[in-house]
């Protein structure tokens, strides 16, 4: 764990290694599980299952950010996520809201969500910083090159690790200037967001270098397309083994939070990893 980062704010931090954030996509078109959790009742049931399996944070999103996805209306996004947020908060779960819109952040925080997870690192909506500062909410700042509709067309970097790190540092500076506490921020390299397979591999190989001092580090590699590309072209439903390999690699590199779809399986992998490395 990094000095200064308070993982307890994000729901964990009592033992060594990362905590798990379970993904609930209340969307009809997510890349990995599109449509399976599209009704509120099914999404709520899924969130409950992920919590029972060991997710300390339940991340609820209503807009797919898969490559090529088209943005949806803010009211539609609220209609998808807010009933799910309310129900899971009502159960006592720690909920994060995965959105790039300040209005959705505000509405979800008002219903008891505690964390904001933004794939634009609070830069996609001019009101986001103000909303997060007003609620004093912990926030996850992710790197993305471009926009989901075009980001995989031709990702380009001179030095992907240096550029992602510089972006994350600059966003932390902007957040602190807006009144946010760096100990309540978590940075994320944004695996698959405007990146080729080579870019994703370079970022995962150098995770420790991407950490911004005093902030947490989150990695979301679960079921992402680089796993299929590096293996035999498996589709999202057949990427669990690769996702576990990526999760253990991120744990070894010191990630604080892993954003995963397969909570029970990742938890078991981490338990064995912890036992074998003698860390409790
Ligand atoms: N990945 C996705 C969505 N949100 N947030 C963070 N912080 N980090 C990530 O890597 C990340 C994220 C994409 O995965 P998923 O939610 O399963 O798909 P979709 O965006 O299509 O709903």
How would you characterize the overall build of this protein?
The chain has 280 residues and is α/β, with parallel strands linked by helices. It has a single domain, classed as TIM Barrel, CATH 3.20.20.20. Helices cover 40% and strands 13% of the residues. The chain contains ten helices and eight strands. The protein has helices at residues 40-53, 74-90, 102-110, 128-135, 160-177, 197-205, 207-210, 225-230, 240-252, 263-277, and strands at 19-25, 57-61, 95-98, 115-118, 139-142, 185-188, 216-219, 257-260. The longest helix has 18 residues, at 160-177. The two termini are 15 Å apart. The relative contact order is 0.15. Mean pLDDT is 92; it is low at 1-6. The structure holds 6-hydroxymethylpterin-diphosphate.
List keywords for this structure.
280 residues; alpha/beta; TIM Barrel; 10 helices; 8 strands; 40% helix; globular; disordered N terminus; binds 6-hydroxymethylpterin-diphosphate
Q: What is the fourth-level CATH superfamily?
A: Dihydropteroate synthase-like
Please trace the helix and strand order, writing H or E for each element: EHEHEHEHEHEHHEHHEH
CATH topology: TIM Barrel
In total, the number of strands is 8
What is the topology?
Blueprint: E1 19-25, H1 40-53, E2 57-61, H2 74-90, E3 95-98, H3 102-110, E4 115-118, H4 128-135, E5 139-142, H5 160-177, E6 185-188, H6 197-205, H7 207-210, E7 216-219, H8 225-230, H9 240-252, E8 257-260, H10 263-277
Parallel strand pairs: 1-2, 1-8, 2-3, 3-4, 4-5, 5-6, 6-7, 7-8
The structure holds 6-hydroxymethylpterin-diphosphate.
């Amino acid at each position: 764990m990094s000095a200064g980062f308070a993982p307890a704010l994000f729901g964990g931090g009592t033992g060594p290694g990362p905590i798990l954030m379970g993904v609930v996509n209340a969307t009809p078109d997510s890349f990995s599980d599109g449509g399976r959790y599209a009704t509120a009742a099914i999404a709520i049931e899924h969130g409950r299952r992920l919590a029972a399996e060991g997710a300390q944070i339940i991340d609820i999103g209503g807009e797919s950010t898969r490559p090529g996805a088209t943005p949806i209306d803010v009211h539609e996004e609220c209609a998808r996520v807010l009933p799910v947020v309310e129900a899971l908060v009502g159960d006592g779960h720690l909920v994060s809201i995965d959105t790039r819109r300040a209005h959705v952040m505000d509405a979800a925080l008002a219903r008891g969500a505690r964390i904001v997870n933004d794939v634009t690192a609070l830069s996609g909506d001019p009101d986001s910083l103000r909303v997060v500062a007003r609620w004093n909410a912990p926030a996850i700042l992710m790197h993305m090159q471009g926009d989901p509709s075009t980001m995989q067309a031709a990702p380009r970097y001179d030095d992907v690790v240096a550029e992602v790190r510089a972006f994350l540092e600059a966003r932390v500076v902007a957040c602190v200037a807006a009144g946010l506490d760096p100990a309540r921020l978590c940075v994320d390299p944004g695996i698959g967001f405007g990146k080729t397979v080579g870019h994703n591999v370079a970022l995962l190989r150098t995770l420790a270098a991407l950490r911004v001092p005093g902030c947490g580090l989150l990695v979301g590699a679960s079921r992402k397309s680089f796993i299929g590309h590096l293996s035999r072209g498996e589709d999202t439903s057949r990427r669990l083994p690769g996702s576990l390999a990526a999760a253990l690699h991120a744990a070894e590199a010191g990630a604080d939070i892993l954003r995963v779809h397969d909570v029970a399986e990742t938890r078991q992998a981490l338990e064995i990893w912890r036992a074998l490395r003698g860390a409790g």
